[in-house]
Amino acid sequence: MKAWRGQLKDEFFAEVVFAETRGKARALARCTEACEDADFTDIEVRRQPQMDKYYTEGKKEMDWDNSKDRIALVKDCGFVCDRDYWEQEDCDTCPAKEYCDTYKDLVTEKGGAE
Question: In 10 A of CB 32, how many CB atoms?
Answer without folding.
Answer: 20
